[in-house]
Specification:
The chain is an alpha+beta fold. It contains eight helices and nine strands. α2 packs across α3 and α5 packs across α6.
């Protein structure tokens, strides 16, 4: 399954496939994204993990190890030792959508996001009605749109649709059904590369 994916996507896929009780790394990300939209205090995450993923003895060391791993993959980052930023790196979101497109031969955004959630990482808010993209992921999506790396559109007759929350550069909340990737830069700046790639470059 998915033979030609990056190290980061393969690691996310491996984490997502783990059965109980080894599923705590994915469950921790679910809890983080369910708890907050853009930023999350580490103390609150620790409290919620102890309540919702209580088959692991969570402590500061384990939580630090978890978010260092998630940062390395590109799922989130942190402002300081106390606050997490729940937005994936642009390259990770782009590659997830690219993998969906190439694997499923589809640019159906309403199908892509649940597929990402099923195979790799949390992506949707859990609420009734039209599926709604998580705010942190929406912020990253908006970066890709603003930099002309990706475009999205809605179609009234589509089977699947995803609602986008407003962002700092867009006040409306459109319903999206299709996406188009415009190509990833061949030599992107450091901010647009996987952290692992930057580490390997520095090690050579």
């Amino acid at each position: 399954m998915l033979p030609d994916i990056s190290f980061e996507l393969r690691l996310l896929l491996h984490i997502n496939l783990q059965p109980y009780p080894q599923d705590h790394l994915r469950k921790a990300q679910d809890v983080a994204f369910d708890t907050a939209s853009r930023t999350l205090q580490r103390d609150l995450l620790e409290t919620n993990l102890k309540g919702e993923v209580d088959y692991i003895n969570w402590n500061r060391t384990k939580i630090n190890a978890w978010y260092r791993l998630m940062e390395g993959i590109g799922v989130l980052s942190f402002a300081d030792s106390r606050e997490l930023i729940l937005s994936p790196r642009p390259v990770l979101l782009y590659k997830l959508l690219e993998t969906f497109r190439d694997t499923e031969n589809s640019t159906d955004f309403g199908a892509a996001i649940p597929w990402i959630e099923d195979h790799f990482m949390s992506a949707l808010n859990t609420r009734p009605g039209t599926p709604r993209l998580h705010q942190g992921i929406t912020d990253t999506l908006q970066v890709l749109i603003d930099e002309d790396l990706l475009s999205v559109r809605g179609m009234s007759d589509a089977r699947h649709e995803i609602e986008l929350p407003s962002t700092q550069s867009r006040q409306e909340e459109p319903t999206v059904t299709e996406f188009e990737l415009h190509g990833w830069p061949n030599n992107p700046p450091a901010s647009k590369r996987h952290l692992f790639d930057r580490f390997m470059e520095g090690a050579l």
